[in-house]
Design brief:
alpha+beta; two-stranded antiparallel ribbon; 8 strands; 16% strand
Length: 299
């Protein structure tokens, strides 16, 4: 079985994302989905790598539901996966929820987590120019790829997420899927990396105003202009949905107008991570931006 997610062709990458989404949806609905059955939806050669995407979801929901997390049980069911890797994902939990002797523990050599206020001028090949935004995921900077002399938008992930390896794993999977989205109405994801404890997402830089700022500055748009923006946004969303990617945080601030006036959706591959329960463990916890959520989510 393939154990490297990067080896997946595009159609398998997208299908793995769909399987993970369905698996987590089943947990959210109060079910106890079968991990092995979920893997069997995929070609056998890709199941090893897919397991490393599904297992953290299974472990998290079992812990949240106060169900046993059995490292030995996982090892017996999936003998092809390294025991230390399984123990690391399980966070040291055993069948009685006590710490296992073989479980991975934080290493003294583990890289420290940086804060968004502690950002060096250069991150890898990118040189920071200035900060252009701040959001729930972290700070956004205008940066330049030194070798290519290309301006990009660099979003540094906030420390609360960077501290959690399961969240980072999920973030990386979502970014890899988002990077497959090539559409004129969707911002292009260019790179995702970790440098000295700093996790960041690099996207194309759009030198334009977002819809929220534009309306505040110029007032209400004409009906024809509104319809045009809606059609463009819906076209981008339809393209993403056909590939199993759901934005989950559509709002004016996430629609930016490009040089040609086209509406471009931003924050793909990130918004979904925001629903991954950073301190939100209640079943009725509300996530997203309230002003732009469907009314039923406020019930």
């Amino acid at each position: 079985m393939s154990s490297s997610f990067t080896e997946f062709p595009e159609e398998i990458l997208l299908e793995v994302n769909r399987v993970c989404n369905r698996f987590e949806t089943a947990w959210r609905a109060g079910e106890d989905p079968n991990l092995k059955a979920a893997l069997e939806e995929l070609p056998e050669k890709y199941r090893g790598a897919a397991l490393l995407e599904l297992l953290p979801i299974d472990v998290e929901w079992r812990r949240r539901s106060q169900l046993p997390i059995d490292v030995d049980g996982y090892c017996q069911r999936f003998p092809g996966v390294d025991r230390e890797r399984i123990a690391e994902i399980c966070g040291g939990a055993s069948s009685d929820n006590s710490v296992s002797d073989t479980a991975a523990t934080p290493s003294s050599t583990q890289k420290r987590t940086r804060t968004t206020e502690d950002i060096p001028r250069t991150i890898g090949d990118y040189e920071i120019v200035d900060q252009i935004g701040q959001g729930g995921m972290g700070a956004v900077y205008r940066a330049v790829h030194v070798r290519m002399d290309r301006t990009v938008a660099l979003k540094v992930i906030q420390p609360e997420i960077a501290k959690d390896p399961q969240l980072i794993q999920r973030f990386e999977r979502e970014v890899r899927v988002a990077a497959k989205l090539t559409h004129p109405n969707i911002v292009a994801a260019l790179d995702a990396r970790e440098e000295d404890g700093i996790y960041c997402l690099i996207t194309e830089f759009i030198d334009g105003q977002d819809l929220n700022t534009l309306v505040k500055k110029n007032g209400p748009m004409s009906v024809s202009a509104v319809v045009d923006v809606l059609i463009q946004a819906a076209t981008g969303l339809e393209y993403a949905h056909q590939r199993g990617v759901i934005h989950r945080d559509i709002k004016p601030a996430n629609v930016i107008f490009g040089e040609q006036g086209q509406a471009i959706l931003t924050d793909f591959g990130i918004a979904k991570l925001m629903t991954h329960d950073l301190q939100l463990t209640a079943t009725q916890a509300m996530v997203g931006t309230p002003n732009y959520m469907a009314p039923e989510f406020g019930l």
